[in-house]
Specification:
Blueprint (H helix, E strand, L loop, with lengths): L1 E4 L3 E6 L2 E12 L2 E3 L4 E4 L4 E16 L4 E6 L5 H13 L3 E6 L5 H14 L4 E5 L12 E7 L13 E4 L9 H12 L7 E5 L7 H14 L3 E6 L5 H6 L4 E5 L9 H14 L5 E6 L6 H6 L5 E6 L5 E11 L4 E6 L8 E9 L5 E2 L3 H8 L1
Parallel strand pairs: 8-12, 8-13, 9-12, 13-14
Antiparallel strand pairs: 1-6, 2-6, 2-7, 3-4, 3-5, 3-6, 9-10, 10-11, 15-18, 16-17, 16-19, 17-18, 19-20
Helix pairs in contact: 1-2, 3-4
Bound molecules: adenosine-5'-triphosphate and magnesium ion (MG).
Length: 364
Amino acid sequence: MKLEIQAGRTLLISGPASVRLEDGSVNIFGAPIHRRGRFTVRREKQMPIEIVEDSKFDVEFGERATYLEVEGSTVPESWKEATRRIGTSGESKILIIGSTDTGKSTFSIYLANKMLKHNRRVAIVDADIGQSDLGPPSSIGLSLVTEPLIELEGATVEAMIFVGETSPSRVVDRVINGIMKLETRIPYGTVKVINTDGWVTDEGAIEYKVRMAERLEPSLVIGLDDVGELDPIMSMVKTPKMKIHVPKYIKVRSREERKHIREHGYRRYLREAVYRNFLLDRIEANDLLERKPEKGNILGFIDSEGFMIGIGIFESLNRRRGILRAYTNVNFRKVSRVECGNIRLSPQGQELPFSVDQTWKELR
Ligand SMILES: Nc1ncnc2c1ncn2[C@@H]1O[C@H](COP(=O)(O)OP(=O)(O)OP(=O)(O)O)[C@@H](O)[C@H]1O
Ligand SMILES: [Mg+2]
């Protein structure tokens, strides 16, 4: 379908769609799109294309894709203000918090793009372990951003930490320690943008986010707040903080869509996986030996420095011969430790329930 849109307006496309800019000048979250450039909008995602000069598009819409034209920008004024403040004040570590579907990931991208424009080096740490775009679900990923981004998925991942869960409540310290470990891989003088999960309202969540702010010592906490839901956290955080608005045109995702996104995330990291045998006299596997995983259990393969190389799916363990069999694309030569997570997957990356047996073991 051909679309012609005037300067000053925004074209909002909900995927799946493939878009080609035939003529004109546009940007997405501050990242310019080249004329005759093509990009895709994934299913479950929405992209606001800001029209800088009158533009012509050729768009192929997939099933259930939609589009909408609105006047002006869909980026809230408070986002612009926050980025101006960060750009001019030299803030160097930004912790982004907010409930689910508030624009946390998008603000991370927007901020990174704006900082690049200020000629600053930028790193994004994606610590949203359930909906992570950097690394598979159940991990934390780091990207050193060198070019403007229109989405996080697909950005080069510099390093990852295996957490083994997709919801943070049982792994709060693991997540905080993981972020701190990834920070050791960020070059000096780089603006650090830390994206977090959407668990913010109950008592555990408040304690977790406040502890995160205390331990990470960000120079600024940015809260994406809709109706004051972040007030309990923001009032307890002692570092400088700023609330910004949830965009009006946010695309909310259902539970099913979130599950689908996670499964797509596992699959990306199981590409070209095969069944492999690992000799347990060569790798540290105490976690695995203690936990007695069942077939399908997610595994994290860790290198000698403690960073995750990739994930795998537990198949079997021969204790007598000391052989672990797993479905993975990770090469055993780099592995120094294997850890076991609390997720069960099919080789196609679908999330499976644990058997009754395993539940009983956990509850005991
Ligand atoms: N300013 C905006 N204009 C238009 N669309 C937006 C804007 N901000 C975010 N969106 C869209 O809304 C959706 C949700 O945003 P985003 O993924 O950033 O939220 P999130 O808080 O990170 O969600 P999650 O809790 O799943 O991590 C995305 O498809 C995104 O592209
Ligand atoms: Mg997000």
